[in-house]
Write a structure and sequence with these properties.
- The chain is of the alpha/beta class.
- Helix content is 30%, strand content 27%.
- The strands form two sheets. Strands 6-7-8-3-9-10 form a six-stranded mixed beta sheet, sandwiched between helices. A four-stranded antiparallel beta sheet has the order 2-1-4-5, covered by helices on one side.
- α4 crosses α5 and α5 runs parallel beside α6.
- The protein is globular, with a radius of gyration of 18 Å.
- Bound molecules: adenosine-5'-diphosphate (ADP) and magnesium ion (MG).
- The site of magnesium ion has 3 residues, from α1.
Length: 233
Amino acid sequence: MPGQASVDRSTDAIVQTHSVSRYFPRGDVHALHDVSLAITRGEHVSIVGKSGSGKSTLLNLIGGMDRPTSGEVYFDGQSLATANLDRYRRQQVGFVFQRYYLLPNLTAAENVQIPMFETSASANERAETANSLLAQVGLSGRGRHLPRQLSGGECQRVAIARAIANRPQVILADEPTGALDSESGMAILELLESLRETSQTTLVVVTHDEAVASRASRQIVLADGELVDSGGA
Ligand SMILES: Nc1ncnc2c1ncn2[C@@H]1O[C@H](COP(=O)(O)OP(=O)(O)O)[C@@H](O)[C@H]1O
Ligand SMILES: [Mg+2]
């Protein structure tokens, strides 16, 4: 496969980007320029930088929601350029967003089940799994609540339960605490950290909150679409 020969397999990287650039013709924006980085399996990294520095663009490329204009993204040593991105997003990554993106007319348990509709799980299995996922995020007994009957922090817990429903290898969180007060935000981060530990998941958190960023073992810093610090030793 093109580009495969150049990937660095000497590290236990789960995600690598190789000179990744993303140009948006609309607005004539170079959102990312020549970004190369590696994220180790099981690592907790944060991606920081001012608004507009390219954080979400980078996370979307890693998550297979977008493709680079040039350069390459590798997951577990495989280039995403030739991957089935639908399947990749469904099976390998779990997304968490600032605004939760829960479906308002579905209950918490139904929202959690959304990713499972594409699996072979039966209705009973889906319901059982949703209950245990809700318990895992501290929401036992809330399965029948609609999003509007839950607090922001509780909605984010539902979104996290949904993100981990298919047991992803990597959780990609874009400003997961951005809509929350600092106390519930920190509780969300602690939940993500505990899931990382119990499931050996890799955790990538985009944030501009220093208290959130500093919990990671490493901070990747972007400025004007360029990698200015990869946070390594
Ligand atoms: N779909 C898009 N079309 C055009 N410009 C975009 C698009 N997405 C992001 N951008 C631009 O790319 C730059 C980086 O955006 P983004 O990655 O969202 O930054 P951050 O998440 O760090 O705030 C910004 O100038 C933004 O306006
Ligand atoms: Mg953003």
